[in-house]
Amino acid sequence: MSTPPPQGQNPFAQPGQQPYGQPQGQAPYPPQGGYPQQPGQPGYPAAPYGAVPPEQPRRKVSFKLVKNIVIVLAVVGAAIGAYISSQDDANTAAVGDCMHRGNSDNNNPDLEVVKCDSSQAQYIVLAKVKGTYSRITADTKCQAEAKDFQYSYTESGDGENFLLCLKDYKK
User: What is the pTM (predicted TM-score) of this model?
Assistant: First the structure.
């Protein structure tokens, strides 16, 4: 008659082999009583202040982020520059303002407002009339608005349409 194998052991296991279902390198049963326990095991006392979380990795500045910031700054700079440069355009002129002609082209004289005590002052605005005018109607309208006008300037298409009646400015 044979005796049954002890409880919990595999009679067919080869010597040096761990019991079925047990991972390699660990004891088949949890330690009992006098065995020292290691941190992280059940029953081990927790640290009094808790674990310190690891420091978050610092975010690196990417080329894409720098490129996008430069593009935004360039667009904002261009918009500010355009706004500042448009502050002295013909559309901001009022009666009594002095004007300077920036271009010799009669189709695009590039008139800009200047101070009347400036050496650049060439014309004075006698009248400013809103609306769209042709060459003939512009001269007729200026004749009605300012009798001693010498030049008429019309602007249309970009926002406000208007007519300026101008005369040479004598210092």
Answer: 0.49
